[in-house]
Design goal:
Blueprint (H helix, E strand, L loop, with lengths): L1 H18 L13 E9 L5 E10 L2 E6 L9 E4 L4 E4 L1 E6 L37 H6 L3 E6 L6 E9 L5 H4 E11 L6 E2 L4 E2 L6 H24 L8 H4 L2 H4 L4 E6 L2 H14 L3 E5 L7 H6 L3 E5 L14 H12 L3 E4 L9 H8 L6 H6 L3 H7 L16 E4 L11 E6 L2 E2 L5 H12 L5
Parallel strand pairs: 1-4, 1-5, 6-7, 9-12, 12-13, 13-14, 14-15
Antiparallel strand pairs: 1-2, 2-3, 5-16, 7-8, 8-9, 10-11, 16-17, 17-18
Pfam families: Amidohydro_1
Protein name: Amidohydrolase family protein
GO molecular function, one term: hydrolase activity, acting on carbon-nitrogen (but not peptide) bonds
């Protein structure tokens, strides 16, 4: 009996080992690469027809229409394909959730309401099978964000080709997240809900005052020259008050965004709004107070019942026209693979194609504080590059043929593609 069980375990082990994916991080760039005869979308609005982009040691060394390919590296003739900066998903639970229905794979929340000391980066799972589905759609960087409670902790930016979270870290603890209590009835995807049975405005404002009290106590603590005892939660607020870290406030409607602006003023913080469904109505205030907006879930119904049905599609263009810094985002983790296509939708509702591209590249980099090293295809920046046979923002023509993260050519395979090939062969329809 024991021998039989051992044989079954051995066979199962061999089977599962053979079933493992062969996708692993690429080696560091060894010699220069020249991408020639390409349509280069720089990411700042500039488009270079029949251009060349060169990069070495992970950094872009030259980009333009009159760049000569050197004999010291690899020359790749793209024959008119399109070259883009890698898309950036600014706010996601990628790597913190694998299966939404399996509790053991969910590591995005912590117990308690106020947890500024929580760091999402140390829970980031680089072996998530979802990551590869994003890369094959041109998404190369992501802001990994904690959830739960009111102050949920700090997010970090990761690059999506790594062995572990230390390798993945691109910019750590760049933003602290404040989930604003709902003050009015909003569309929660299942109809309009007002939250608790009691007055949502009263309950929400009480919670906001509790958060303000916590911030004031943290400020007072940090101003003391010495402490009788260390308070980890207060200590974790130091970088926020020094403006080395941003405060991302998750809110949707005008009342909530006015409170976000009040936070920025009272505590002199660098604030960005995440969500901002009604941000189009207060563009002057946002511009005046230098508040950026991460527009969440552009493919959705309007939040308020009296909004235009296509308002989520139009908001980006309205912020662009008003001069408010914004970018596009998506909820969840696997949904991030559609981010480029949502930018494409925004380009049919008032944005130009290059403005829509900036909304998922340069603008996102600015809001996340990484625009000095990525977000555009400019000399000196990291070679985070996506190459598409067609328009990367168009679902029909987008075919990502190559991608590079910090100069490393990454594997674009994924589990879904492998299953597709498997059943092509099973049913005899493979080419």
């Amino acid at each position: 009996m024991k021998k039989h069980i051992f044989s079954m375990v051995l066979v199962f082990g061999i089977y599962t080992a053979q079933a493992q994916e062969t996708i692993y991080p690429a080696k560091s760039q060894e010699k220069p690469v020249y991408l020639t005869n390409a349509v280069i979308h720089v990411g700042n609005g500039q488009v270079i027809e029949n251009g060349t982009l060169a990069f070495a040691k992970g950094k872009i060394t030259a980009v333009g229409a009159n760049i000569s390919a050197g004999s010291d590296g690899t020359v790749i003739d793209l024959k008119g394909q399109h070259v883009y900066p890698g898309i950036i998903a600014p706010e996601t639970s990628l790597g913190l959730v694998e299966f939404e229905s399996v509790r053991a794979t969910i590591d995005v929340r912590e117990v308690g309401e106020i947890n500024p000391s929580i760091r999402s980066i140390i829970s980031y799972n680089t072996d998530s099978k979802v990551i590869n589905t994003l890369r094959s759609n041109g998404v190369l960087l992501a802001g990994v964000t904690p959830e739960g409670g009111i102050i949920s902790g700090s997010s970090s930016v990761v690059q999506l080709d790594a062995w572990n979270w230390e390798d993945a870290a691109y910019k750590t603890d760049n933003a602290l997240h404040f989930y604003m209590p709902r003050l009015v009835a909003v569309n929660n995807g299942r109809g309009f809900s007002s939250g608790p049975a009691n007055d949502p405005l009263k309950t929400g404002l009480e919670k906001v005052e509790n958060v303000k009290a916590f911030f004031r106590e943290a400020q007072a603590y940090l101003q003391e020259p010495k402490h009788a005892a260390t308070n980890i939660k207060f200590e974790s607020m130091r970088r926020l008050f020094n403006r080395e870290q941003k405060l991302f406030i998750h809110c949707e409607v005008i009342k909530e965004m006015l409170i976000a602006i009040d936070f920025a003023k009272e505590f002199k913080l660098d604030v960005a709004i995440v969500g901002g469904a009604d941000s189009w109505q207060i563009t002057d205030l946002l511009k005046q107070n230098n508040i950026a907006v991460i527009l969440n879930q552009p493919h959705s119904l309007p939040v308020m019942q009296d909004d235009d049905i296509d308002q989520p599609y139009k908001t980006a263009a309205q912020l662009q026209k008003a001069g408010v810094l914004y970018c596009l985002s998506n909820e969840g983790f696997w949904q991030q693979r559609n981010l480029g296509f949502e930018a494409g939708t925004a380009s049919t509702y008032g944005l130009t194609k290059e403005e829509a591209l900036s909304a998922v590249t340069l603008n996102a980099a600015k809001i996340l504080g990484i625009d000095k090293i990525t977000g555009t295809l400019e000399t000196g920046k990291d070679a985070n590059i996506a190459i598409s046979a067609g328009d990367m923002l168009d679902m029909k023509s987008s075919i990502i043929t190559r991608a590079y993260i910090q100069g490393r050519e990454i594997n674009l395979d994924n589990k879904q593609h492998q299953l597709f090939e498997r059943y092509e062969r099973k049913y005899g329809i493979a080419e």
